[in-house]
Amino acid sequence: MREDKILNNSFNNGEMEYQDFSAPMKIDDRVADQYKDQLTDNIIGVHVSKMLEKQIFELFESSKYYEKYKNPKKVDKSDMVKMYYFFKNVLQEEKSYSCVEIFIGFAEFFQINYDQLYGEVGVKDKENLLKELHEKYDLSSKIKTKKLF
Fold first, then answer.
1. Contact call for residues 46 and 36 (beta carbons, < 8 A)
2. What span, in angstroms and rounded, lies between the C-alpha atoms of 35 and 132?
3. Domain locations in the chain?
4. Interatomic CA distance for residues 46 and 57, integer angstroms
């Protein structure tokens, strides 16, 4: 600190030594959900899933399934596949989302087990999902599949 000779004031001339901050920062658990997208390695993926969830909800509100499932309850097995193809066809027309994103978004929105939904969709959709997982996400070493034909 220096002293001002006219006003007898001390002032900072900008030459201070600061300690490096090397400790990890922790966000309080009460507000951590507000920063979920900044704390992930895939910020774009988080934003895409939020946009997809919003779009699925808007489609759901305007669909014939809204009245039956507006109060959270388990989706009937007979309606599950019909609903999946309804949402998939509308979302794929826009060509904004991939097959895997639509599959995961639908399963998450309606809280359906991935294995259960995968078991119910058609063979062509299973093939497209596996193909995208192999090509886009390079999961060929983790998922062992054989071609039927």
1. yes
2. 29
3. 29-136
4. 17
